[in-house]
Design a protein that fits this description.
This protein has about 250 residues and is an alpha/beta fold. The strands form 3 sheets. Strands 2, 3, 4, 7 and 8 form a 5-stranded parallel sheet that branches. A two-stranded antiparallel sheet has the order 1-9. Strand 2, helix 2 and strand 3 form a beta-alpha-beta unit. Helix 2 runs parallel beside helix 8, helix 5 packs parallel to helix 6 and helix 7 crosses helix 8. The two termini are about 35 Å apart. The relative contact order is 0.24. The structure holds zinc ion. The site of zinc ion (ZN) has 6 residues, from strand 2. The site of zinc ion has 6 residues, from strand 2.
Amino acid sequence: MNALATARSAAVAARRSARRSAGTLLGSAVEVRTERPEVVLTFDDGPEPGGTDKVLSALDGAGATATFFVLLTRVRRYRSLLDEVLAAGHEVALHGVDHRALPTLPADEVARLVRGGRAELEDATGRPVRWFRPPYGRQTFRNWRSVTGAGLIPVLWGPTTWDWKDVSVAERVAKSQQGVRSGAIVLAHDGFAGPADGACDGPPPVLDRGEVIAGVLEAYADHGLSACSLEHALLSGDLVRETWFPG
Ligand SMILES: [Zn+2]
């Protein structure tokens, strides 16, 4: 590494360290500090017939657990799938009442939606809900205050699986390996939010979500990594928080 690259890398590390220091007060979860060789696997935008069920089979085949960030627009339509997620021992968390980006909504509406969403999801699951994943990873400081004020912690991610793009399974699996390490929070999807969820992100990609996750888990296993839910990872690890206000 030349002197310029060394200086740049030191500057990046310093910025990250500053975000983490501030993150203890104003933080969103970005990974888990753990000694165990496991990654945190998360799924967004479900439940969805043809997606969630296949993902559940793949997880079962690998003996893995995961955290599912669900949309209430979908929980109301596909309640039996939510019950299947719970019955299989996975964790359920909130992705939103719908999939609209928080910064595009009036602040008082965000506060009402997040608080009401948590209550509705706790009624549906019969369990406490601890985590919130902002749609598109977008939040302002004010949104963050609404989320934490509702008793939830925002959870972002590290590695992704590119399962919202039209690429091959091999490319999705290769992408999921980039930057992965123990305690990384991996972003995947068991559904695709559409107009009925307040999203306008075009047509869904054509893919078998079970095949993708089976491939991702196999590649992690090749590196000695298993996958588990966030609540499971925190049994032997600590949440790492950073400030995250991309707007
Ligand atoms: Zn989403």
